[in-house]
Write a structure and sequence with these properties.
- It is a single chain.
- By secondary structure, the chain is an alpha/beta fold.
- It is about 45% helix and about 15% strand.
- Strands 1, 2, 3, 4, 5 and 6 form a six-stranded mixed β-sheet that branches.
- The chain starts with a strand and ends in an 18-residue tail after the last helix.
Length: about 210
């Protein structure tokens, strides 16, 4: 089993990475592999709603880390997305990335457990988690929790080391993710498969 973790921060070794690394340690203790993918500090093109991914099988924009991440998502058993807080919400790059990831590759993530984490100097974490969790809820993905909201605090990775509660939350999240993955695997061994689900009904509110 393997969990794909996305570092939405432009800082490769910052607070968000430190939090994800703590999760990775807990997953490893429970026998679950993980990989951290950083989206980098380059420009991330936003989704333009062209629908080409449904016809081509991939996003029309092939530059940047998106297409490679979709390929990794196919093989992953779970997903964790981390973002720093910018103006009380996820940063713009990870939102653009998530729009395109779920538009072009959401079918590869459906029914896989997922979680979001946020890092901040002070506030805006719960609004950030709310925005990120909505991708999972729309895509029929079980949302994994810990013993508090999934957040750490600090202005740099060294600060996060002092957030003992935040690091404990990350470890709890890792252990809970591993537990859920093992429960799903045990269910499959007993013949319990994911529900097929109905075809999506889209209601237009404008008549």
């Amino acid at each position: 089993m393997k969990v794909l973790m996305i570092n939405g921060s432009p800082h490769a070794d910052g607070c968000t990475f430190r939090a994800l690394s703590e999760i990775a340690k807990a997953l490893k203790e429970d026998g679950v592999d993980s990989e951290i993918v950083q989206i980098g500090n380059g420009a991330i093109h936003g989704c333009i709603g062209c629908g080409s991914c449904g016809k081509l099988g991939h996003c029309v924009f092939t530059d940047g880390p998106l297409c490679e991440t979709v390929e990794k998502a196919k093989e992953a058993d779970g997903l964790i997305v981390g973002s720093p807080v910018y103006y009380a919400s996820p940063n713009g790059s990870i939102l653009s990335f998530m729009d395109r990831l779920f538009c072009s590759g959401g079918k590869y993530l459906a029914y896989k457990p997922a979680a979001a984490i946020a890092s901040a100097r002070r506030a805006g974490t719960t609004a950030t988690l709310d925005a990120l969790n909505k991708y999972f809820m729309f895509n029929r993905m079980p949302v994994v929790s810990s013993n508090y909201w999934n957040m750490v605090h600090g202005t740099c990775a060294a600060d996060v080391e002092q957030d003992l509660e935040g690091l404990q939350i990350m470890r709890g999240l890792g252990h809970n993710m591993a537990w859920m993955l093992k429960c799903i695997e045990a269910g499959k061994e007993k013949g319990i498969e994911c529900p097929e689900g109905e075809a999506k009904i889209k209601t237009n509110f404008i008549r």
